[in-house]
Amino acid sequence: MKQSCSNQLLALGLSLVALCALIQLELPSWVSSSKINHSNGQAATLIVPTSEISAGDERQLQQEPSCSALSPTRLPLAVGEEEFHLGLDRKFVERMNFTLAFQYLFLDRDIHNGAAAVQEFDLAFYEAWSDSNDGALVAKQGRVDGNATDISGGYDEACHGVFQATLSPTHIVDNIQNLNPFSVHMQGTDCRIRQGFMDAYFNGYLDNFRDAMQRCVALCVPATGEPCPVVLSGLSQGGGVAIVAALDLKAYDMDPTIITFGAMRAVVGHDPAFPCTDLDTSRHFRFTNSNAAGQYDAIANQRFPADNIQVGHSILLDEINYPMLYLGLDEDRDRFPWSVDMHHRNSYRDRINGLLAMPDDCFPIPLGKWPAGHICHNDDECHGTCVSWTCTDSLLVGGHPCDTDEDCESGSCTWRIGWFHLLRLCE
Ligand SMILES: *[C@@H]1O[C@H](CO)[C@@H](O)[C@H](O)[C@H]1NC(C)=O
Ligand SMILES: *[C@@H]1O[C@H](CO)[C@@H](O)[C@H](O)[C@H]1NC(C)=O
Ligand SMILES: *[C@@H]1O[C@H](CO)[C@@H](O)[C@H](O)[C@H]1NC(C)=O
């Protein structure tokens, strides 16, 4: 029974991947920052003590376009091992916007028309490569001499490596890469990586890519005197490739930040022989999408084969991102139900546009848990608990289905025999 069920799920997963590939899985993203430390002028995130962060009721936010007008309700924010919490500053969100824009370049235009790309994005550095089904580019804003002190505001003084998402719905080679169940030890690292993402990175233009990244970094001299930020990004398949790239570029003295949108699982986990400690997952900001109907990105939540893991700071976007849902470092839960639309690059672009439309005093946008009233499917999404698909802050009364003792007023969630199944109810 269990076996056939998981077979069905697997088949469903496979067909969804194929469907996705059919529908456009593309999307890239950019990442920046060295440590999560705002003392570096280019860092993408801020360390904000919990006590300084507050978040307001989301309905109020919709009516009142000023975050300071919100009545602050203190929420416990993401609990990380490091005892600090994250907030996204506007610069980081602009960087997300910049990286994602290149996915449109990959898919809709000619990436080899460098002059057009340079003009459109006001770039100081641009090189791009593609083969039959994969593509990569290196881009940097600012001046070509990299003299950051001469740059007026608004530029992203970082070297971006961007990886193309699945080319088209029906692209056979891409889909073979995405569905390839085999994995391989990545030489020089303690990681085991899915073959398809290795193939998409270790291709004919890799030497050119590495060389361009190095030249870009050499040009880039931030006014802060810090090393040039290196940001690797990708959407969907490109997100998985960005992880491989981050591991590879360590050998070239780069310490990239990774920004992914709806990334597929590239890392094979749970094998003591390959703990993958060479990947600094705390530098990976993994955005996935959801919506007010309670649906989640259908591809980011695929687990094929079963031993693949998601890594990085798991951040879930939806229509209202204040606070933005932070699920934890290396959080790996598959979330249902799925929506293929929530994987589309346009849906990520819409979310980013929504973030950039927020008033200045909303920044840095706190990362925490959804407040009471928000739709949910799992307790880890809520400040309180998820009851009947709605976040609630109140404890459950006796007889209500529960997951843990903490859910219940009585402090006791116990097993009961129901019709044909066991369930847990509050005492
Ligand atoms: C942030 O960086 C500064 C300067 O590089 C350093 O002194 C400080 O300890 C760092 N903070 C954290 C939390 O890493
Ligand atoms: C987001 O990116 C697009 C495409 O590059 C650009 O036209 C737009 O101005 C950006 N938005 C913001 C708020 O920076
Ligand atoms: C970059 O800035 C420094 C310091 O202002 C200056 O000495 C140098 O000439 C500048 N380089 C270029 C290429 O403009």
UniProtKB/TrEMBL annotation:
Highest taxon, organism lineage: Eukaryota
GO biological process: lipid metabolic process
Domain Fungal lipase-type: 163-265
Leader sequence segment: 1-33
SUPFAM superfamilies (UniProt xref): alpha/beta-Hydrolases
Alphabetized UniProt keyword annotations: Signal
Protein name as annotated: Fungal lipase-type domain-containing protein
Organism: Seminavis robusta
Lineage, uppermost ranks: Eukaryota, Sar, Stramenopiles, Ochrophyta, Bacillariophyta
